[in-house]
Amino acid sequence: MDTVGGFFTPQRLMKFAVAAMFDLFKFICCMVVFLVPVAEVLDIAAWGLFFLWFAISGVKMFGGARATNRFLAAATSSIVGAIPFVNMFPTIIAGVITIEYQSWQEAKEKAAKEKPKQSRGERIREQQEEYSEAT
After folding, report:
1. Where in the sequence is the domain holding 78, given as residue range(s)?
2. Which residue of 24, 29, 83, 111 could cross-link 35, Cys pair, CB 3.0 to 4.6 Å?
3. Residue 107: CB atoms within 10 Å
4. What is the mean pLDDT of residues 114-123?
5. Which is more confident, 87 or 98?
6. Integer distance in angstroms from the first to the last C-alpha of the chain?
């Protein structure tokens, strides 16, 4: 059993849904010409929220080699989101998925280093020993 868990956890799905809603609101604002500045404000607010949310989740955005990659993903997504007409595309969700995937991969690698895999026979013997001790 994988100790890290699958990629689509409820917390991640909630982040993806919130990012999709921000992107939808940005798209609607971009369709109405005089609301384009509102789309830029939404982009800044969204990334402020996600930086806070990632910090609460324990995902580092600063400090470390992998953290730099996550920060660059967020920065690239926000810069692309600031370009007129291109900001209609779902840049926030693309950045959030990239950051979440990188942090998930890092957690998987860390878990793999901490606990070496056992062979099937070793696991069965360990379970039999635990069972015999319990009875």
Report:
1. 10-134
2. 29
3. 15
4. 72
5. 98
6. 25
